[in-house]
Amino acid sequence: MKKALIASLLLVLAGCSPSSSHDKLVKTLKTVQSWTATARMVGETWQQGSIPDLYAQQTLEKSQQEIAKETKDLTDSPALPRQIYQLQQTLQQMTTAVKQHRKAEIATPLVQLATEQQQLEALLKAQGDRL
Description:
There is one protein chain. This protein is about 80% helix and about 0% strand. With about 130 residues, the chain is mainly α.
C-alpha cells in the first residue's frame, strides 16, 4: 500500500506544471517534513521521559496546526490530502497518549510517523528530480 500511495502521489504531483506551483509544493512539503521531524523528535524524547508532558503536548498540537495551515491549499490533489489526513491522525494519537501519560501507547504512532516521514522524503526527492 505504501508503494501505491507514493506512486499515486507522484502522478498527482507530476501534473503540477507551472514552476511557481512546483516551487510552492516543494516549500510546503519541506515545511510539513520539518514539522513531522519535530513531532517525531518530541514524541521520542517524551517517551524516554526527558521532557515534560505539557511541552510535548503543546509541541504536538502546534505541529498539527502548522501542518494544517501549510496544506490547506493542497486539496486539489486527492492523494496528498489523504496522506496529510493520515499524518494528522498519527499526530492526534500521539497527543492523546501524552495527555493520558501513556508512554506505551505512543510507540505505534511513532513507528507510523517514521514511515510517513520517509514518504515525505521520497516525495521531496521526486520533486527535486523533476527540476
